[in-house]
Amino acid sequence: MKQEVTITGNPIVDTHIDYYGNEVGSFTYSDPHSVLVISSKILVSTKHRPFPVNDIFPAQQWEDLKPLQYMVPFIDFLRQEYFEGFEELKKLVDELKGTDDIPYQVAVRFCEYVYKNFNYIKGVTTVETTLDEIWKLKAGVCRFCPYLNRNAADDKNPGKVCKRLYLYR
Q: How many CB atoms lie within 10 A of CB 151?
């Protein structure tokens, strides 16, 4: 609805709309500085969203995710990268996943696990923090939201999991 951004030194911000429809801003602040503050105040409107309709068999829902991993809007959520903590994560997901659970139910349980077992600690992670680092720290910041890769519990893809482990608080 409304966003107000202030940046140290008031640099000119060039904005554009990215592929996903987000407004993205870039700026350069070349004056020597030891602190850079970017403050963003956002006014949002929220509305209730109904839970997804569950009228497709669970096995079919898991199968339906496979082709999505190659579609641009979903690549960041379903693309895989190496993750040393895969075996620990696989064990956790196996405990959280019931035999007839749909992807949504597993994701919600995983979100609850992250909320209860990870700590919100400002400054501990950055956009460059790896999944391995986050998994070891069991901490992160609020810009991360949990997305569970559909292959996290898939024996055909050991050692690979979603690009990021996101925290949601």
A: 21
